[in-house]
Amino acid sequence: MRLAFYAPLKSPDHPVPSGDRAMARGLMAALQRGGATVTVASTLRSRDGAGDSAAQAMLFNAAEAEVTQATARGRTEGWQAWITYHNYYKAPDLIGPAVARALGIPYLLVESSRARKRLTGPWAGFAQAAEAASDAADVIFYLTHRDAETLRRDQTAGQRLVHLPPFLAQDALPLPSALDGPMLAVGMLRDGDKRASYQIIAETLALLPEDGRRLDIAGDGPARTEIETMLAPFGDAVRFLGELDATAMAAAYRHASLLFWPGVNEAFGLAYLEAQAAGLPVVAQDRPGVRDVLAPASYPAPESGTAPLAAQITALLSDTTLRHTRAQAARDFVAQHHLLPTATATLLAGLESCGVRP
């Protein structure tokens, strides 16, 4: 089975780590696990974060050349299907639909979002391209139930929607955490939604007793100085670990007591799955997308403020039995729904529905 793969937001070969890159790599690993030969069909990054019509015009032109090259390559290599990861109005797939049409092969999308309100305004052309890609897809794999709502609303005749839960690119769970270290937060240090989550963390820590404020933060970014200042009142209780590689990140999970990340506007958050796989209870807010990757438990609504978050942290840190019970439930949840074998089976079933088989 020979498949073309494309990630317009961030290629799996991109040098800067992120959740998008990790998910793209995970998808390739899942397909390869199922016996596919997966080719990165293009590394063109179509993202325009500013709504710049000139930049979009340049990307449309660049995509035309990519279509020509990819079509020729697809004929030579005998691609049987094209799979694109993460098509949306700021980073639409400008290549895959045209190549799939030219080659006469199925076109599949993973995590595609609909945004009618963007069909006018600075991203209008890109939004139309993203909608056209969604319309062209034979199968759309959706990662969260929030995305499924608009995909069902605008589903085209004959198009199949398949739930693919976010997953970790591993076959088994790592060793469990000892649950005896500090709390852990995992998130880039940047403005916007990440900063908003750190603001909630700061406000929550202020409600905790001094001996319950130990927190390690894994991540780095352009707003580090600002966020360090925000958390400076807690002194040495809060440690900034910087950007960690996979080995160091696994060690951080293995020695933490719980994961604390509110999840402001997270699409879903792979860190939640990584933490739960390591057996960390999670303290987060009940938010769309986030709730799709959290083991069943009580998570406070964002509008309830920080007091419920502080109460949950206090309960988990003071009650060893509760902490270990939540830890085991988290590991069981990830093992059942969010590892590579389940993802591979789901992807292969979607491909088979288009007539593509190993």
From TrEMBL:
Key word Repressor present in the record?
no
User: Does Repressor show up as a keyword for this record?
Assistant: no
* Any Pfam family the entry gives: Glycos_transf_1
- InterPro entries membership: Glyco_trans_1, Glycosyltransferase_grp1
- Enzyme nomenclature, EC number: 2.4.1.337
Note the superkingdom of the native organism: Bacteria
Q: Which Gene3D superfamilies did the record assign?
A: Glycogen Phosphorylase B
Coiled-coil positions? none
Domain Glycosyl transferase family, chain residue ranges per copy: 200-332
Recite the UniProt keywords alphabetically. Answer: Glycosyltransferase, Transferase
Q: What is this protein called?
A: Alpha-monoglucosyldiacylglycerol synthase
Taxon lineage:
Bacteria, Pseudomonadati, Pseudomonadota, Alphaproteobacteria, Rhodobacterales
